[in-house]
Amino acid sequence: MKLKNNRISFYSTQNILGIFTLLLTVFTSCEDFVDVDLPPDLVDTKEVFASDGSAEAAMRGVYAYTTNSTAITSMFKIVPLSSDELEKTSYSTEYEMFATNKIDPTSSTISNIWRGYYNIIYQCNNIVLNVSESTELSEDLKKELEGEAKFMRAFCYFYLVNLWGDVPISLVTDYDVVRLLPRSSSTQVYGQIEADLLDAQSKLSDELYTTAGERIRANKWAATALLARVRLYQENWADAETQASAVINSGYYELESLTDVFYATSRESIIQLANAGTNRYTYSVLTTSSLTNPPYRLTSYVSDSISDDDERRAAWLTPTLNGPYKYKAYSNTRGPEEPEATNMLRLAEMYLIRAEARTQQDNITGLNSAETDLNIIRSRAGLSGTTATTKATMLQDIYTERMRELFCEWSHRWLDVKRIGQANAIFGSRKTEWVSEASLFPIPYDDIQENPYLTQNPGY
């Protein structure tokens, strides 16, 4: 069956470059975000990668597209409905599927998330392949762009493998190859993520790429931070600690006050997604009025875990008509003179990764231990130090702190509960219709129909 022209993961080269052009046009209103515009009539691949300026503009177009992709926005407001973080306050068929963990493979939302990630991957593949073949680009820029594209590709595959399990690995832009790719094992996907991040580390500069104080392009430390997370998920505790320590000790990042964490100029941010033009707030996922009912609200389980003496409650939660909603990265309570950005990776996560890795290696209390790292995060929140002294109690304290610190950010809670093997125990006790198969999302129906080598996850 011939694929539809609007299939996200199978754009032709000209269509992809058309996307680059459109994105660059949209983002020219964001001062200094795109330094070099791609001419509207420049859609030939070789022309785009024939000069440093247009090639760099193409990479920035990837970031621009990512900012507004459903694949990204869903990590904050849709996937948390599947876990125990958010609950809906009004009926929507799409939201109901996620909240009850009964996602229909024909869901437009699940299709948009899947295709959104593969669209970003396609664009990254286009850059990697054309940059490596270019004879016109400077060698320094070729390394930089390839490193950035591989970081973004690894980031997308990290979410694909954790949301769906085994997924196709696409490293090319050939339609006839991509449209018939089978699923690769999770081990193979993690192998590709690792390879991309190690190569990105070797190619990217360790200096900050900043625009007006915003950290909106990947550097060596962004690749290192994501690799630290990957190592944690792989249970490679020693290297998870090593990679997290490298970021912490780099000297480029520091914990901000709770009220400043999500500003575009936050020094805690390792890499951000910027918004365009005068829309300098991050997504207003939850309503900002205290007099109205938010479309989703924090569950009592999460909100009650953030006690009154926890300063995150005052800084990141706002009472509404019918329950608390989270401020964090989603409000528009500040004016354009203090813009916000969406953190892809931030320093607090590195401390929590290192705390968990150290605990798993029995470095639990004392100097330079899990206790040290966990208390750094607790102290910023105005909490006293942990009283945990055993591996079991320290791990529990770390998991609880991850929920409090990272709630509704990039679906950390959904992924954490699954990776520690507690999905059935935790979600089963809080969700009346939970079944174990719900821990993986369904492959979109249309993709199954159009690719005979693509199989469905169990239970769908």
UniProtKB/TrEMBL annotation:
- Report the subcellular localization: Cell outer membrane
Q: Respond yes or no to whether keyword Cytoplasm is given for this record.
A: no
Residue ranges annotated for the SusD-like N-terminal domain, each copy included:
87-232
Family annotation (SUPFAM superfamilies): TPR-like (SSF48452)
Protein's UniProt keywords contain Cell wall biogenesis/degradation: no
Family membership, please give it: Belongs to the SusD family.
What protein name applies here?
Answer: RagB/SusD family nutrient uptake outer membrane protein
Q: Upper taxonomic classification of the species?
A: Bacteria, Pseudomonadati, Bacteroidota, Flavobacteriia, Flavobacteriales
